[in-house]
Design a protein that fits this description.
The protein is 70% helix and 0% strand. With 127 residues, the protein is an all-alpha fold.
Length: 127
Amino acid sequence: MLKYVLKEARAELGLKQEDVASMVNVTKQTYLKWENGTTEPKASQINLLAKALNVSANEICEGRRYSRMSLEKFIIQKAINSDSREIETLRVWEQIPDHMAFLSSLVEPFNDQGLTDKISALEDANS
């Protein structure tokens, strides 16, 4: 439920209800109603809440937290599971300064226009 996402995320960040209320430009009472499940935020307030609580808008709307881990924890989990090739790939990926240029360099030798177009579209989306 939405109220659990709000409470859990706020607690993880060590914020008070009035802190979050101030961050999303509502009164403490309004925020308290959201966290108690009495009312729900307007659509225009969801993105502000997501940013303030470091969660996604989808998590707020779906009323459930997604399970996430840092890249470092993910790599450790892969190591525990003996997935050494994937760990190598992740470590290399982490060291590449420009991912889009790297992907483009992989495509150039093959002159695959379809793949080149897809990478160009990704570059445009990330601009």
